Amino acid sequence: MRAAVLAGLHAVLVEGQRSEEVVRRVLRANPAFHNAQRALAADSIHGVACLRMRYAHHAGTSQPAWLWAFHLLERGASEADAAALAQLDEGALRARHAAPPPWPEDPTLAWATRFSFPPWLAAHLLDALGPAATAFAQACNQPAAAVLRANTLRTTREALLDNLSLAGWNVTPTRLSPDGITLHGHANLRGSLAWQEGLFEIQDEGSQLVAQATLVTPGMTVLDLCAGSGGKTLALAAMMMDQGTIHATDLNPARLLDLQGRARRRGVRSIQTHAWGQLPLLQADVVLVDAPCSHLGVLRRSPDLRWFLNAGELDAYPRTQRGLLTHALQLCRPGGHILYATCTVLPAENEAVVTGLPGCSLEVVRAGGLTGTPWLNVRPDTHGTDGFFLALLKKDAA
Predict the structure, then answer these.
(1) Average pLDDT of the chain, as a whole number
(2) DSSP-derived 3-state class of residue 63
(3) Stretch 65-73: mean pLDDT, rounded?
(4) What are the backbone dihedrals phi and psi of residue 73, each rounded to the nearest 5 degrees, phi first?
(5) Which of 3.50.50.60, 3.40.190.10, 2.60.40.1120, 3.30.70.1170 would CATH assign to domain 146-202?
């Protein structure tokens, strides 16, 4: 296993590959790994990818083996075990571990190093969240549990909990979403009978709240303007009991192919997919705008995303987001609703985008027992979910 992990870390740290892709490749190439080895390999590659800046500061080097050793120490391994796995001299590791260097004097750089964020991004987060940035960063640096959404077209959450428990899974109901189930530990999700029977989708609780905040009901005409691969689209179909019509489109046409397949496997008939720019003339009752964004709210699940962002992208997102909302207003009937959502925590992509938008007004957001006036923010450090921003807009009457 040592060689596979070190090769994976080299691909991430030296070649600049994304950790999610590297983990998948490493696990596929090593089918003989038992469950504990698979978990250790995935945690090691993801963890070092995420916390590389902190580990490099402590180790005094960016060599993958040293970063891995410090990750193993942080996860509770002994110095002897960490040195043996990473093939390092135990005495040298013990010496560096016992006398870590002080944090940088500059407060922003010290925070960036401690929590392993690019300094420019650390400055954005500190400005946006203030003192709460520390708790947010700590939550983002912890692995997220898998969360399922019971497909209420085919089962109930209670029945699914019983089903999965009998299969030996450690599952509990989510605190906020009435359809959510948290999986504690590991399970072969897509190899399970419940998955094959279409009883659940894999969807974070925060994402489930986005769908619930739309207020859709059976028989409506709904537009999912940025449907992606369709997790929220399928949740809308379940809320509507597969009655009515959901028009789904996305700037990336390849992602819609995945949605078509998922809907077909789940027996959902209310979803129609359309190429971008080829929507029929709509006056939708509800439009969901799950806008492209910096994705800072899902760093728990994409630990090295922070290293692929750049400041120019952050500056460009609000213009795109405001344009999508303007387009959504044209496709919404007078008096209808638009749910604007992002999975980021930056006000420039959230509050600033929906404030003062002409032709509509902000309404109270309700989802999962939470109320937002005039908007709602959920985060991993405050709600245990991925980070999402939700704002409900009502189009002015004609």
Answers:
(1) 95
(2) coil
(3) 97
(4) -65, -40
(5) 3.30.70.1170
| Contact present, 182 and 174 (Cβ < 8 Å) | yes
**In this structure, which amino acid lies at residue 114?**
R
Average pLDDT over residues 149-175: 97
Q: What pLDDT is attached to residue 35?
A: 83
CATH class for the region spanning 206-395: alpha beta
Determine the average pLDDT of the residues in 253-265: 88
**C-alpha torsion 244→249→254→258, nearest 10:** -20
Cis peptide before 303 (omega within 30 of 0): no
- Residue 225: count other Cβ atoms within 10 Å of its Cβ: 24
Tokens, residue 351: 């509050």
pLDDT value of residue 187? 85
| CA gap 112, 279 in Å, rounded | 44
Q: How far apart are CA 51 and CA 99, in angstroms?
A: 19
Of 287, 357, 292, 285, nearest to 328 by C-alpha is: 287
Contacts of 194 (CB under 8 A, 6+ apart): 160, 163, 164, 167, 200
Say whether pLDDT at 47 is over 90.
yes
How many angstroms from the chain centroid is the CA of residue 89? Answer: 38
Rg value, the chain, Cα: 23
Is 206-395 in the same CATH topology as 146-202? no
Q: Is 351 exposed, middle or buried (0-12, 13-18, 19+ CB in 10 A)?
A: middle
Cβ-proximal residues to 22 (8 Å cutoff; 6+ apart), any chain: 8, 11, 12, 45
Band (258; pLDDT cuts 50, 70, 90): confident
Calculate ∠ Cα 305-233-148, nearest 5°: 65
The domain segmentation of the chain, as residue ranges, is: 2-101, 146-202, 206-395
> What's the pLDDT score for residue 188?
85
Statement: residue 398 has pLDDT above 80: no
Please state the pTM of the whole predicted model: 0.94
Query: 3-state DSSP: the chain helix, strand, coil percent, rounded to 5?
Result: 45, 15, 35
